[in-house]
Amino acid sequence: MICSNHRLTGAVFALVTMASLAGPLMAQQQLEGFTEPYRRIAVPASEIGVISEIAVVEGDEVLQSQLLARLNDTVLVASLEVARASKDAMGTRRGAEAEVRVREKQLASYRELQENGNASRRELDRSETEYQQAIARLQAIDEELEVRRLEYERVKAQVQRRRIESPISGVVVEVAKEAGEFVSPTDPIVLQVVQLDQLKAIFSVPLSLIRYVREGAEVTLQTGRENRDTQGIVEFVSPVADAESGSVRVKIRIPNLQRSIQSGIAVRWFLDAPTVRISQRTD
């Protein structure tokens, strides 16, 4: 009987020893968090003024650069039309071009006459001066037209800034103001838009496990009450640890093109970490 016990103990020891040589065990540490919109943007008005239009309602899906709201721009639109007319006014320039052509022909005629001895040097110099003056007037008009064009672009940009556009493709989750309300520098937020085709989950990983986490690694998460397996990608591992909790902030991006995962639900991450196997013999 004693011999049998010794043989059994030896067999157990051999199995434990072989297992320890095969490699370390993997233990799972459960981390919990919540899904969040990948981006949540409070969309402000870039100018102060009265809202003339809210073009969306809560729940609307919007594309990047889509109009969300507009500030009153009646005065600026009128100024834009004035600037457009001023920019496109070409009568003065056509007159200056015609004068340049006339002075150029006169100068050519005086040069020919001077070569034949029928015009004095003084008459030729005066003709050259008049030609240069005509060119200078045409240049001054071109410069003025360029200033008018820039003024038109400036007013056009001001009108554009009265438009409140979506910075991303996403869903409107809050409309903070209504048409007729005033937008001030101290309260500029008009709407909130979130991106849901990707989600994120933030985990606090203990310092003892952070060395097993790598940016860019694919991980399996479990979401919701059904504990459905969901793939995620480690997008960010904070280089700074939280001294109070002894943990490191890790952000995981969760692809969600079909919108099958709800934002705000529980998500669990079972982080694998090696543990030391017991290989001591106990009699």
Automatic annotation (TrEMBL):
Gene Ontology CC annotations of this record: efflux pump complex
Keywords recorded for this protein, A-Z: Coiled coil, Signal
Coiled-coil intervals, chain numbering: 110-158
Signal peptide annotation: 1-27
GO molecular function, one term: efflux transmembrane transporter activity
Alphabetized SUPFAM superfamilies for the sequence: HlyD-like secretion proteins (SSF111369)
Keyword Transport: no
Keyword Glycoprotein: no
UniProt similarity note: Belongs to the membrane fusion protein (MFP) (TC 8.A.1) family.
Name the record gives this protein: Multidrug resistance protein MdtE
Lineage: Bacteria, Pseudomonadati, Planctomycetota, Planctomycetia, Pirellulales
Gene: mdtE
